[in-house]
Amino acid sequence: METRRQKHLVLILAREFASNLATPTLIADDQGRLIFYNEAAETVTGRPFAEAGEMPLDEWTAGFAPRTLDSEPLPLDRRPAGIALYERRAAHEQFRITSLDGVEREVAVTAFPLFAHADEFVGVIVIFWRE
Amino acid sequence: MRVTIWGCRGSMPTPGPDTVHYGGNTSCIEVLLDDGTVIVLDAGTGIRRLGFELQERGTRRIHLFLTHLHLDHLEGLRFFGPLWDERVMLDIWGPPSPLSSLQERIARSFSPPLFPVELRDVPAQVTFRDVPRRQWTVEGASLAAALVVHPGPTVGFRIETASSSFAYLPDHEPALAGAIADRSSDWISGASIADDVDVLVHDAQYFEDEYEDRIGWGHSSVADAVSFSRAVGARRLLLFHHEPRHTDGSLERLEARARSLVRRSEVQPTLAREGMVVELP
């Protein structure tokens, strides 16, 4: 039996939830691939998701040069999205990014893993709180 | 593969003169494989008459797949004749829950004050299994189950043999996760179950105006059923889970509405009807 691949129902519902939020929110799948961000997140990303398309989280965030408040580089595995993805636990952090408009901003980010069943990890939700 | 509809009414049984043609029994479908394997989809009140038929045939092994445990999909089980026959082996499959096992959840309907006999006291040899996350086989058929948009843990089923495929999504509101026509199929609930299927049985409980007042109840409008069928490339659509208030006459108007929505190249949708038999190669 070979059928088309479909996103997990939890991700489909998460996307609909995010698309109705005024808070910048993005969703990645269990492989760390960015699969959606909402309109509110366009204020951070500078372009709509339909234009950006799916891509690895790390590739997407590289453009924002994330760094600590002391200006140390902040790799994915130390950021909330990476912690939720690799360690499968919720995380929150404040750090700096350079937006696509070239402005340095301080953001707070919350990320948490999505489990369809206790042992079935399907992705992460990442929420940006602009400071 | 022979598919027989034993119950296609949604939400609650509706016997009476207004529902004689399409039937008032709730969800139950029998899928008979070429090798004689009996697969039963849901245990609404339609399963009672199926039970008589299976006893008549002397069937001793039955695979029952439950999409979810809302009453209209479970209430017939207590009156399913083979359950009361110690010679019968009944495998019951259903969606997993993080809170309790399938057996524990079904046992609630076999306990006071709802019912006088405990589930552990039924004579048949019953096993309970959570549906696997990956496809599996039962006798000569491949099966797949996936969670779909409906309140509470609910799955749809796909049954496939070497020559044909059948999908069953009786309670499904894919439009709740966004307009179906606007999405690629990988973002549509239930798409992996119904992809390119020969026959799709899908929830079409409401006319569009009725649906507007019932968004989030877990069921589809006839227009969404047609959109879903088109999005997944189903070759034939059977409209299912008829609204209890819909008489035979209003169901015929619903079918006409569905047919007005399909394109010339598409097969016209048909109302599921109690007693209907669909033969697949």
List the helices and strands and how they pair.
The complex is a heterodimer of chains A (131) and B (281).
Chain A: H1 9-19, E1 25-29, E2 33-37, H2 42-45, H3 49-52, E3 55-56, H4 57-62, H5 80-87, E4 91-98, E5 104-117, E6 120-130
Antiparallel strand pairs in A: 1-2, 1-6, 2-3, 4-5, 5-6
Chain B: E1 2-7, E2 28-32, E3 38-41, H1 47-57, E4 61-65, E5 89-94, H2 102-107, E6 125-130, E7 136-138, E8 141-147, E9 155-160, E10 165-169, H3 191-194, E11 199-203, H4 208-212, H5 222-232, E12 237-240, H6 248-261, E13 270-271, E14 277-279
Parallel strand pairs in B: 3-4, 4-5, 5-6, 10-11, 11-12, 12-13
Antiparallel strand pairs in B: 1-2, 1-14, 2-3, 7-8, 8-9, 9-10
Please describe what this structure looks like:
The complex is a heterodimer of chains A (131) and B (281). Chain A is of the alpha+beta class. Helix content of chain A is 25%, strand content 34%. Chain A is built from 5 helices and 6 strands; from the N terminus they run H-E-E-H-H-E-H-H-E-E-E. Chain A has a 6-stranded antiparallel sheet, sandwiched between helices. Chain B has 281 residues and is α/β, with parallel strands linked by helices. Chain B has a single domain, classed as Ribonuclease Z/Hydroxyacylglutathione hydrolase-like (Metallo-beta-lactamase, Chain A, 4-Layer Sandwich), CATH 3.60.15.10. In chain B, 18% of the residues lie in helices and 24% in strands. Chain B has a 7-stranded mixed sheet. Chain B starts with a strand and ends with a strand. The A-B interface holds A 1, 3-10, 12-13, 15-16, 19, 116-118, 120 and B 96, 98, 133, 135, 142, 144, 146-149, 158, 160, 165, 176-178, 185-189, 191-193, 195-196.
Summarize the structure.
The complex is a heterodimer of chains A (131) and B (281). Chain A is α+β, with helices and mostly antiparallel strands and 131 residues long. Chain A has one domain: PAS domain (Beta-Lactamase, 2-Layer Sandwich), CATH 3.30.450.20.
What would the keywords be for this entry?
heterodimer; A: 131 residues; alpha+beta; Beta-Lactamase; 6-stranded antiparallel beta sheet; 5 helices; 25% helix; B: 281 residues; alpha/beta; Metallo-beta-lactamase, Chain A; 7-stranded mixed beta sheet; 6 helices; 18% helix; globular
